[in-house]
Amino acid sequence: MAELSDAEYQQFRALVDREAVREVILRNSRAIDRVDEELLRAVYWPDGWDSHSIFDGSFEDYVPWVIETLNGMIATQHNVANILIELDGDHAYTESYFIAHHKLLGEGGEERDMIAAGRYIDHIERRGDEWRIKHRRAVFDWDLNQPSTSGWNAPERKAMMERGTRGRGDPVFSRDHLT
Q: For residue 128, is it left (φ>0), alpha (ψ between -120 and 50) or beta?
């Protein structure tokens, strides 16, 4: 196999770094949606910072806040797209569009659907061979909050459809059924 030129190696290294950065962003969504504190701690640096408008503080303060907030919801799903990554040595500056769906209980106990859309503006840093979030800033562009119209929660529907769960009991963590 032919040796890479310096320019080709730099292009290859940039592709590898971009993919590692993208993986951090996507694993963060899994951590949030599965309410997986262990995974969440693996995508932020311990000295990291999170600015989520209603929360702005250290990562150590963010973890209990976000876990408590998520545990007050029935379900969430964060879809991330349009990930732009600017590399600068051991630093990556990213903008990622998101649409985050939240299933909540209203004050009267009725189910509500809240959708928030915006962008994550991240500073992701490499230390050694590992990339993690140093600072995340969530910028919100629009939202929708309304009574739920879901028909899937009727008992006859629940029995027909496998549902995702929070935590390590979710099907994504078991590959036995895929063989």
A: left
Domain that holds residue 93: 6-164
Residue at 144 is within a domain:
yes
Q: Is residue 83 part of a domain?
A: yes
Question: Does 95 reside within a domain?
Answer: yes
Rounded CA-CA distance 146/126 in Å is: 41
pTM over 0.85: yes
| Residue 146 CB contacts under 8 Å (≥ 6 apart), including other chains | 112, 113, 114
The CATH number that applies at residue 145 is 3.10.450.50
Exposure string for 3-23, b = 16+ CB within 10 A, e = fewer:
eeeeeeeeeeeeeebbebbbe
Query: What are the pLDDT digits (tens) for 116-161?
Result: 999 999 999 999 999 999 999 999 999 999 999 877 766 777 677 7
Amino acid letter, 174: S
**pLDDT tens digits, residue range 13-48?**
999 999 999 999 999 999 999 999 999 999 999 999
